[in-house]
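Please describe what follows:
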Amino acid sequence: MAALCLLGGLTANAVDFVADGLAYNFLNGSTVEVTSTVRIGVEIYADYSQGLEWDCQMWVVDDERYYGLGDRDAYPKGVNYPGLAGALVIPAQVEYCGATYTVTRISDYAFAFTDITSVELPATITDVGQSAFEACEQLSVVYISDLEAWCRINFKGGEWFGRTCAGDFSWTQVGGLLSSGNPTEYAHRLYLNGNELTTAVVPDGVTRLGYTFHNCAHLTEVTLPATVADLGAYTFAGTGITRLPLTEAIDRIPDGAFSDCPSLPDTVVIPANIKFINRSAFSHSPIDCLFLPATIRLMDMRSFEATGLRHIFSPAYLAPCTINTLDDPHGGWSAFDEATYSNAVLHIPPGADYADRYDEATNEFISGWTWFEHIEEYGDVNGDSRVDVDDLNIVINVILDMNQEPATVALCDVDGSGHVDVDDLNLLINAILGAD
């Protein structure tokens, strides 16, 4: 019997065993991971075709190299799980040689390049490896039965690199073209107990999300418990959410977290507990008006790229680091794109320092608001060099016709619309909340 068990596990990838058509590796005495049938990896090579050296990547499958990673025509289709197509059901447990094992992990590249159309994940899964469903272009739906278990899955992303700005804080960027392990990146639809997930209430006790709802296109609302203190990259990217699901414990908006979200409100207010906005955090999400809190210390490259911003309000008297460079402000290293610098209006308090500056202690250049072509002061209605509740009271009095002195009315027209109304009041309220 032992010999038969051994023969049943022979594949090109030398996995530990095969059961019901799926390949597995032992993790410990009672758990296993489901894995690929071939060895899959990625190698870096230098490409000089454009006259410059570019670090490019290629697939390596059982020592055979496939150039053009990211090019659909170069995907090594059919090499992994030949013939696997249609619905894939990953079991919670699997039997082998008289023993029962719990399936807790999906390995890197496990089902890459296959033609599966749906996948069902058991609640026992705790980890999904990088590119586990890479290039599964026929995949259209993911089925789960336990939202809490799903939220606790560690979806592995691409390679990560770190860099430091201004000494005591850092940002990260995803390297390469590899996908996360979350199958919704391709499927775009997540079903919980047979119903598509359009609203999600994350259970109490969950402390971190990462890639969790990536590309769930029909998800419109997510409620987070106060226990969530950390978001991973691309957590809500590609969803239909209509507001920012954040908690007071979160101080960083990570890479791509709200990118490609077409249904975000026209006005986005960043909460006062946020200190860092990472790379591509809101890229390609249409936003008309952005309110930043005074607590912001760093906005990483491309964090608001291609958003169509027209107004940015910052109550800070010292501009945050926006990762510009002196010689090329529009070269992709800035928080904003060239269209924003040219067309948007930056609203700052009277006397705010928006110039670039150099931190001698850390030998770092910190770019502020210098590259904005349109900068206007706002909000200081009473001229005391502060935006606070006193200014708010003056606007309220003008709205209630208790003060119609022309100069005062002009100062209360915060949004420049030509009249003083609740919109001006809301702008001041958001500015005051941000400044706090």
Observations:
- Residues 140-377 form one domain.
